[in-house]
Design a protein that fits this description.
Helix content is 11%, strand content 69%. The protein is mainly beta and 186 residues long. An 8-stranded antiparallel β-barrel has the order 1-3-4-5-6-7-8-9. Strand 5 and strand 6 (112-128) form a beta hairpin.
């Protein structure tokens, strides 16, 4: 009986150590430089677009599959949108999304990584200055970026995301965002 308990304890300890090496969790946050691509006409009215500065924050996991390859799923709250000018008036359209990027991480060295992957986003909130709630509730896009591990626990990332689906029911616009992030892995 003692041998069985000893083997079970050793197995659990070994499994926990292996899990810690192959699966890590963390948090990240940063700044978004967001805009919307496309013709920018709302209901046939031409407008000029400018980007907005906003933020993102959330949870991250890294699943190490090979020595130089990992999968990094994330769960983020991210605000995107643009500022529009038409007929001498300016209005902002801020969209709050629950974003779920799943990044493939290719390590170029021990610290640098190239990151590529899809992202599904679900609209949680819409703030605008013109009382129109015309944004679509789902946004699908692709992301590409670079990551750098400062220490084993602290990292920074730069990423560009382009929307592949239209963000509005009434305009031909798609989300576009450049993100700078800092994070901590536990």
């Amino acid at each position: 009986m003692k041998k069985i308990i000893l083997v079970a304890v050793l197995f659990i300890a070994t499994s926990a150590t292996m899990q810690a090496q192959f699966l890590r969790f963390g948090v990240k946050a940063g700044v978004n430089f967001a805009n919307q691509t496309g013709d920018g006409a709302f209901n046939g009215i031409a407008v000029d677009k400018e980007g907005i500065t906003s933020y993102h924050a959330g949870l991250v996991a890294e699943i190490k599959l090979l020595e130089k390859f990992s999968i990094q799923p994330e769960l983020l709250y991210s605000t995107q949108g643009a500022s529009y000018k038409a007929a001498g008036q300016e209005f902002k359209n801020k969209l709050g999304y629950l974003s779920i990027p799943v990044m493939a991480k290719f390590y170029l060295s021990k610290s640098f990584s190239l990151e590529l992957g899809p992202q599904a986003s679900f609209l949680l909130s819409e703030k605008n200055d013109f009382n129109v709630k015309d944004s679509k509730t789902f946004d699908f896009g692709l992301n590409a970026g670079l990551g750098f591990k400062i220490t084993d626990n602290i990292f920074i990332q730069g990423r560009y995301g382009i929307g592949l689906t239209e963000a509005s029911k009434d305009a031909d616009v798609k989300n576009s965002v450049f993100q700078l992030s800092a994070g901590f892995m536990f």
